[in-house]
Amino acid sequence: MDDETNKQQLIVVWPYRFRDFDWQRFELEFLSEHFEVHIHELIDALTPEFTTAYANQSESERVTRFSSLKQWNREFRKISKDAVVFSHLRPVNFRLFIACFRLRISGATVVAFSTGGVSFSSVRVNPDKRDLPETIKKLLHFVRRNLLRIAMPHFVVVGGSEEVKRARRDFPRSTKIIIANSSDFSTTIRLMKNETVTSKGAIYLDTGFPGFPRDEIIEKTSETVRPEDWYPNLSKFFETVERSLGLKVSISVHPKHVGRDHQPLFGERETLSGQTAECVSLCELVIATNSTAISYAIAFLKPLVLITSDKIQNNRDQYKSSLIQNISADTGATIFNIDRQYSEQEIRAALVINHAKYASYKQKYLTSRTDNKPNYQVILEEIINPQDY
């Protein structure tokens, strides 16, 4: 099957802006050895307002961008029979239900993913929406996953025991759960094979909060923490860390915001793009709010500290605060409020790793496997060609 035209089709149906980062994250460079890969990007058809959150996109010829679902469906039908589809669509409204239903009846093998790799929060993203009692939620999940069975995928790839629970909540029994890894942990498996040397430095895992547009656009919520309430004291906290530990803090830029000017936010501080896993593997300390890339700190056994502020803690919207608190509880990481001052002793005390909590976090959110197989290998062995293994 060396000839590209004889390869089986792999269609990635992606509702966001597709970036080179996503090509790497889903290990498509390895899967492209076995498939002819097509990326069907649907952000302009589904949520065009969300495009402002992205500063970059893949220019690969494998990516086709569709402005309407009708246009996409016409092209999808040409190549979908006997294909493998990586679907990142969920039937959360009527349009998406129809799109998911079309995937299911297309003659393709449909594979979904639940590989977030970070602690959850039960607090609603939008505080204006009323929360429901847990018993009502469970009933609604039962009804939803069974009523929507005809639009559900054949497989769902999950990483970690908590993601397995979520998959069982969200998908019917007819969807087979494939035990794999979070996307970030799968990346670390490949990096762990290389010998690394720790360097002097700390890495801040930037999410773009609160300086750039982010997921609140699609959630239709507004950011209530202003940049002027965050960045000046964040810089002072970095300076405290640097004085206390004798190292420099660099900024790991979020993949959405590669290409934006970070200088107004971080001054002359070093910013690094497209190499978060490698930077964390080499650093001495990881600083974060609620980034999914925290999984790199867990995987590489790096000290982790979390940061918050008065505005976050006192905000009417407690979603971000609850995420930070949950990550702290799960990892044992100390939370520092950037609006307060800390001594060198307090900073140094936070460098102690709670290895038991790191191991638990890894099992709950990163992987349920013990064989260190990356996701592309799991997919090939357990979905595509199980008879060959």
From TrEMBL:
The name of this protein is Unannotated protein
Per the UniProt record, the source organism is freshwater metagenome
Source taxonomy: unclassified sequences, metagenomes, ecological metagenomes
